[in-house]
Specification:
This protein is an alpha+beta fold and about 100 residues long. It has one domain. Helices cover about 45% and strands about 15% of the residues.
């Protein structure tokens, strides 16, 4: 087990190629395909914020996503969500509301 842990600690993954990397065109298509009128996540952003933002925001988010892939680290709060109970007859169903960037990613 010690050998596995040593090898794992030294592993850095494969190099991210241009074909594998996120680009502005891909992210713009993903953002534009998001359904409007959804509830805001814990970050208080909706897809409309991204859809109507300056094009520089898309470039910044592309760099952020590519950093996630190259470093292999995504902050724990990036995927944080909250659950809203929806009454169903004699029971409840939960709907998770997550950050709009998490939905894009």
């Amino acid at each position: 087990m010690s050998l596995l842990n040593d090898l794992r600690a030294q592993y850095c993954g494969s190099v991210l190629t241009d074909e594998q990397a996120f680009d502005a065109e891909l992210l713009s298509r993903l953002i534009n395909s998001l359904k409007r009128g959804k509830a805001a996540g814990l970050d208080e952003l909706t897809c409309e914020h991204l859809q109507h933002s300056h094009p520089n925001v898309v470039s910044i988010v592309v760099k952020l996503f590519n950093l996630f892939v190259t470093t292999g680290h995504i902050p724990t709060t990036f995927g944080a969500s909250y659950t809203v109970p929806i009454p169903k007859c004699d029971d409840f169903r939960g709907i998770s509301i997550s950050a709009v960037c998490f939905q894009t990613f």
